[in-house]
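Mods, move this if it's the wrong board.
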Amino acid sequence: MNHSRFALAASIAIPLAMLSACGDEVTEVTQVTEVKQVPITMVSTEKDLPTCGEDINGSFVITTDKQKVFVCYSEKWYTLNAVDGSSEGKAGTNGKNGTNGTNGKNGTNGKDGSDGSDGEDGTSCTGVAFESGDSTGFKIVCGTDTLGVILNGKDGVDGADGNNGRHGLVPGLAKKLVKQMKRGINASAFFSGRENFSEFDDNIFMSDWPLYTDTSNYDRLEKKHFKMIADKGFDHIRFQIRWDTHFIGKKTECLINPEYMKQVRWAVDNTIANGMIAVVDEHELLMSQRVTDNNKASNSYTYKTASPCEKKIYRQIIEEMKDISPDSLIIELPNEPTTDEYITATQWNNLVDSLIQIIHGIDPARVIIVGSRNYYSKDNLNELQLDDPNGLLMASFHYYDPYKFASNCGSGAPPADSCGKETWEGTNNQKMAIYKDFEQVALWSKSHGNMPVYLGEYGTIYYIKDDASVERWLTSITQIADYFGFATSMHNFGGDYYVYYFEKDKWVDHKLRALFNPKEKFVAPDRPDLDAISKNTIVEDFGDDFPKSKLSSDLGLNFNWDFYNSCEGRTACDTVVTTNEVGTRSESATMASFKTADGHSGDGLYMKHVVDLPKDVSPYWALNLNLSNGDDYVDLSKMEALSFWAKGHGKIRLVLFTAYSDSIAAKSSDPDWKAGFYGEFSLSDEWTRYVIWADALLPERYSELESFGGEWAKAKDRVYKIEFKNGDGILQGMKSTIEWYLDDITIHGMELEDF
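Not the wrong board. Structure tokens:
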């Protein structure tokens, strides 16, 4: 993120050109496995070299008297020695053959150069020119070891020093930056319309967005704030920017006001000047998904690619920002696309792909942040289809759960009596719910080449009354994100979720404490390797006994699988079970019709449920296996985890129903339905093994069991039903499709004799 470091690296193009002139041949490198950008400096003579220590390991120094290049490696200075000079001078002006050789003049034969002296400990170093893809530079080789690579600037003036050219591409830069971005803050002043903006101001950007309930107090960014933010320990600022209210000329031309662009650049430059990374986020997805009925009706764009306006906006942004070092500025694609009504998964992927091509076509070294649909939901990450050969992409999600606590009644003035009274006690169940959600994101990342993850927004609205609850919630989210290696950015500096209170000109202490000086430390559960657990029992493999369960057969019992759904008894509901492309309504479907030969390993189960329901009905589909005749239960006390293989669309929820304590059952209006412990998963198109650990089983949301703080440990010896059903997120009155493939349901930690 240091500008001077990049400038020095680019300026090495002239002296390094001599290195390629010294060798007998130039090797073309077609694959670079490690690239390291290192600082370059100059001293007068070899005597002026600084001490080679760990702090400058890998650094290069040029001596101006003899134009030698030295590299610091393992606490020793090595000279990039030339090989023997050739017998014939190279064509060209005053080309040198060897370190001690005589200049060859304009192609005449030069004298043999003296042998280059060996480096210390028998190791000599040389620079080998290479070209790989769109990148050129020098591979630094000492003996048989490659220390790293220096990439030349591209499109430089006269091809010399890389000025005004493209930055050298650093493969894997996104993984490096996600560690440096550890703690960030959102700045939302630029998101407001501010249509009365007239000209650039070097000291302040004043939003026209009133803060809190005070219409005379406005969100803003002052020059002094950048140092204040850095001094508090923040590593980056995410700027939420709206461009469409700052066009000049005809709106359809999508030309950004140059004065407004200059103001945005002012914010970015001040961020970097104070040692932080800047993230520029287009906070309003243009031409596609404003959440209004009018827009929905008028949005006829097909999204085979991004809209022309969006493309033009990003071209202007990148042209303005392309001179900034890639380790100081990150570009984020449009913020929080919504759902199918406005933009589908295919359309979003098309838009993402086209904008990435535009950005990397102009600035190929730039790191880009990409979020998921449904307002950057973690559950929609698996829809993303990202091609990231150079490691320059970072995935993002936002988190405000439980929403009833964190955001409650939404932005603006809250109703006097009904908002902000929720508390968050930080119980084990509450912390484990966050852990499970973040673990889901981490598993997605692992399955996508350990793609770096950015928690771009989380925070609590200003009118929540219990500061202790806010501090506990922020502490837990921040620490669990740290555990999984996510960079984080709290929402936000000003605005309705403020961390800095402009009216009193002070920070909100309990929010800062949660970020930088937490009272508690989250300890992640200690879990074994699933495949190392020796005791395992298959509940169902959809073999010959199905729909009777394999577990029932092995135990000598007679329990079959069953299903129910929201279409039963409804003539307005279209439910289709697809087997060999034959559609059957749910009323005539049987469990046997769900069996398919296309399981994960042999036979499996396939269910498809197409739903078109009245507006007051929520769609559901459940597959269940009873384990009790009424008074007897299955004891799962020894169970460590339950796993299954699945693929499909939407969410799948696994629920273990228990006979909880009499006191809870007496308070419950419907204990048979409510006393369930669950784990929920978002399905992908590829077969995946999903695991719910026993210590992560939580009481079903919004149930009596949750309100009473029910714990799995108090009910695990009285389990009477296993159920798979659709998860949260399917809305009433919407046409939806629930589609599953399911196979190999297994309980880990128990053998048959343990039941």
